[in-house]
Design brief:
By secondary structure, this protein is mainly alpha-helical. 51% of the residues lie in helices and 8% in strands. It has nine helices and four strands. The strands form two sheets. It has a two-stranded antiparallel sheet. It has a two-stranded antiparallel sheet with strand order 3-4. β3 and β4 form a beta hairpin. 28% of the residues are buried.
Length: 191
């Protein structure tokens, strides 16, 4: 199965700005997907109550609760929506109505930007992992039940990452002494 092309940070920022032009709710929704790797299905019905202070709190498929701190740019976007919509869903579609479901958002996103919003998720998850955040922490942010599901679905490698990994080994070589025993004389021989 072919994987979609990875979005650059510049392309993601451009998409977030374009979505914000179609409404603060769309901009914030795209921002959450592109920054934290959340599923739109988990976000479209959130209200101000799902954003206590500087955190997000919601349930994912299977009923598990996800909560984590938010970055300041996210808090600023959410505060703007909380003021505009203190009750009911924060994220309204391009027609000013609440999204019916995450699928409706995904179809709108595909139609508007000609790419799947899962590419935003993949870009967010790849950025977290590339910056050295461990997979368990990333899974706790994105709402994945297991690390293996997160890695099997979203982690990918490329020649650049492989070269960086090899360079890291060159920069920090591990000295390992190997000892072999010859059966003839049972004397250790260092290699």
């Amino acid at each position: 199965k072919a994987r979609p092309v990875m979005l650059t940070d510049e392309a993601v920022a451009d998409l977030m700005n374009q979505a914000a032009e179609s409404g603060a709710g769309n901009g914030a929704l795209v921002h959450l997907v592109a920054t934290y790797g959340h599923r739109a299905e988990n976000l479209v019905r959130l209200t101000a109550d799902n954003f206590p202070g500087t955190r997000i709190l919601f349930r994912v498929k299977g009923g598990d609760e996800v909560t984590h701190p938010l970055l300041q740019p996210t808090i600023d976007r959410i505060d703007e929506l909380r003021k505009a919509h203190p009750k009911g869903p924060l994220f309204l579609n391009h027609l000013g109505k609440p999204w019916d479901n995450g699928r409706a958002f995904a179809v709108w996103f595909l139609h508007t930007y000609h790419l799947g919003y899962y590419q935003l998720k993949r870009a967010a998850i790849s950025r977290w992992l590339a910056r050295g955040v461990d997979a368990k922490t990333v899974a706790s942010i994105t709402g994945h039940r297991t690390v293996s599901l997160l890695l099997d679905t979203y982690a990918s490698t490329n020649e650049h990452r492989q070269a960086a990994a090899l360079e890291a080994l060159r920069e920090r070589p591990q000295v390992v002494a190997c000892v072999t025993v010859r059966l003839e004389d049972n004397k250790p021989k260092e290699e």
